[in-house]
DNA sequence: AGTTAGCACTCTTGACTATGAAGTGCTAAC
DNA sequence: GTTAGCACTTCATAGTCAAGAGTGCTAACT
């Protein structure tokens, strides 16, 4: 276990390094933090902290920088999560109070705001709607051969998709579809639009089998593939000195371009909690020089979307987590008002 | 006017520079291009070409690089637009033959393909629909206080938007809306959903004025603001040596992040033609080190979307223009089939 | 008059060196 | 357990130098 002074020194080094991006020396700690001991004592403690793996040393005559393990200790034990100003709170509130028509828009706004305030790149995905319950499903004829399906869910998500046919569709077919789909599916989760259901409908409307298949296919496609990844502030990374090295910047942009990877990370984030992945804690080796902080917001058991911040391991964890917690709180208040 | 040999030398310099990104020397021209003269002659011509502004010189003892004016001459007079392989054509064909439900998807696919083949960053916007004629307009009640408006146009664009109310909406109101809107608007361009129209509807439905206003507002919002900018391959720039300088990469990403700027550029592109903006020909000074090539595809007088390529001034104009022309041709064939 | 060989001149690049600054780790004293 | 003092290490910066690449000019050639 670390004694009190060592903890203070570790915290000071990490916070100084987060601010300056320069290796922290014993002298600078003495100057800027009110430590009541000499630089030699600090050096001894720093050697100890390095020995147990919380610090690294770029080379013998440089100061210390935090290791991934050091950041982890900091995040778990030392970090303060009230690192947010009144102005920032006001700004967040005003942004989140925008009137939106769909839950997904709110996720976008939250992600956007998070990036603005923290100056890191944010990523977000909309809700995984498969578990959402169907409130209403409507088919509307847009042309003699064009049908639109609109599905409303109890978590405020709206899925709409267009289906084209090689043959004319009649109004009576449409009203049949409306009745059958609603009778069977209302109150059911979206994932119930599956093969058994397709079979059922085909039996009920046995003389128009050709119409059913594309409808079910297209709806499923819309539900599954409608997982856009929203990105905000990719260019912000150039403000950080770690991205001065072209290779790092390139890796970063490649990560952001690999939608599947981002999706995977956001999806693996646990429900209702803030998750921090520091450097090589990340499952993917491409991410070893980066940290990711995610959180998912939910209503009851319903997933409403996941937001993440990605940046250098030298990230201002305190700031990001503080802002995230506040946004999370406000989102819940907002959603609690019964918007949907 | 340039004599034949000077033209050949200019062309050779530009093509060599596009390939290598290194200043081109008289010696290397002699080696790699079958010019029947000595390096001294080439040097004389190069001095002349520099004098008239087609070439620049980084410093006295370096080779020459093309100036913006040089590229312009090359694009206007020397460029070949058949720089595309059979495989590439096949690939483009296969991509564009994907079945799509909306014209906008096709624009996205074309943009995406263009970026894949040329390895430059592509941007695209959907059609400016204001001049599109309304084929049908439908209101659908999604909940007692949620209305969806779907508008179909003769160019295959579908605009849908959701409107929320503080009061219940009845089915009879909805059918009224359907009748009134369609009677008045069918065959009209989308831009006709304007203030005079709002007045007209308000007169016709004078007892439900409160319902009309948000509808018109929201529809107009959807028409005007539904101009997403699609971006593809932003990370590709790191393959080009001009982006080795961090400042250039940063400027580039900032440009891509400024949606309004990109939108403006794409919108100012003329109809049905390929437009090339080289370096400081661009209206915006931020773009002085970049070139942009755009083209808009149309059916008759209808705008169907605009696609652009943005990259360093040392761009492979020949390749990009060749591929664009081919895509443009295929798009027209595709659309000519009467998909919409 | 246009073309060419030859060569002096210019500028860049990379390797090598010297020097100063920053910081540590150790020793010995407190 | 803490601290002052100092030797030692490493990095960053500037300076020097030589090699290499390419031009521009001059004078000769066709």
Largest interface: pair, residues per side: A-B, 31 and 31 residues
Main β-sheet of chain A: number of strands, strand sense, barrel status?
5 strands, antiparallel
Average pLDDT confidence of chain A is 90
CATH class category label of the largest domain in chain A: Alpha Beta
Q: Which series of helices and strands of chain A comes N to C?
A: HHHEEHHHEEEEHHHEHHEEEH
User: Which shape of chain A, going by the Cα principal axes?
Assistant: elongated
Q: Write the CATH architecture name of the largest domain in chain A.
A: 2-Layer Sandwich
What is the strand content of chain A? 15-25%
Radius of gyration of chain A: 26 Å
Distance between the termini of chain A: 49 Å
DSSP helix fraction of chain A:
40-55%
CATH homology superfamily of the largest domain in chain A = GAF domain
> Which ranges of chain A are low-confidence, i.e. pLDDT below 50, for 5 or more consecutive residues?
none
Characteristic key phrases:
homodimer; 340 residues; alpha+beta; Arc Repressor Mutant, subunit A; Enolase-like, domain 1; 3 domains; five-stranded antiparallel β-sheet; three-stranded antiparallel β-sheet; 12 helices; elongated; DNA-binding
Topology of helices and strands:
The structure is a homodimer of 340-residue chains.
Chain A: H1 4-20, H2 26-32, H3 39-51, E1 55-56, E2 65-66, H4 68-78, H5 86-96, H6 103-118, E3 121-125, E4 134-143, E5 146-153, E6 158-164, H7 171-185, H8 195-204, H9 209-225, E7 229-232, H10 246-257, H11 259-267, E8 274-278, E9 290-299, E10 302-312, H12 317-336
Antiparallel strand pairs in A: 1-2, 3-7, 3-10, 4-5, 5-6, 8-9, 9-10
Helix pairs in contact in A: 1-3, 1-4, 2-3, 5-6, 5-12, 6-12, 8-9
Chain A binds a DNA duplex (30 and 30 nucleotides) through helix 3.
